[in-house]
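If you are new to this repository, start here. Below is one unmodified record pulled from the training split, so you can see the exact layout before writing a loader.
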Amino acid sequence: MSQEDAARKSRLACQRVIALAEFRSAEAVMIYLPMAHELDTTELAKAAWEAQKVVLAPKVDWRDRHMMALRIHSVDDRIVEHDYGLREPIDGEPWPMEDIDLIIVPALAFDRRGHRLGHGAGFYDRFLARPGVHAATCGLAFAEQCIEELPVHPNDWPVDMLVTDEYVLRFNNRKADRPSGRSASAAAPE
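And here is the target side for that same chain:
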C-alpha cells in the first residue's frame, strides 16, 4: 500500500472511530502509537484532545512482561522507537486501568469474530485480561488486514468491535459476558 493510500485509509478509519458512541462518551481513550505499516492513530488522538479527553498510550515492561497506560500530550514528543519498531512514551502519568473507557487495539490481522493476531508477545492479551480493565475494546486495522477466521489460543482476548477504513463490526465479546470462557461470537455489521 502506498503511503498516500495508507494515510487516506487511516483517516477514514479514525473518522469511523470518532463517530462511535463509545468514543464520544469516553473520558479516557487508550490509543497505540503506530509501528511501520500500522494504521496511523494521529487523527484519533487529535480529536480526543480537541474533545478534552485524556489520551493514553501503552508502555511495556519487558522484564516483568506487562503493559501499563501512560497519559500523553503528543504523538511525537517524548516518544521513543525501539529497535524492533515499537513506539512508546518515554515517560508520562500512569493512568489507572479501571479509569480507561476505550482501548484502541492494534494487530497484524483481525478476524470476523474479533480475534486478533498480534506480534506474539501477549502484552495486550495480558493487559485486557486484568480484572481492573473494564473498557470497551476496539480493534483498528486496514480492511486488508481482516480475514474470515484466525486460530485462537486460550489466552487470547477478542475485541468488542473492529473498525477499518471500510466498515465497523460489533461482537458480543464484552469481558463481563465471558466469565468462564473466551469464545467470541459472530460479527454484527454497523
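Two things worth knowing about this chain: The chain has four helices and 14 strands. The domain at 3-189 is CATH 3.40.50.10420 (Rossmann fold).
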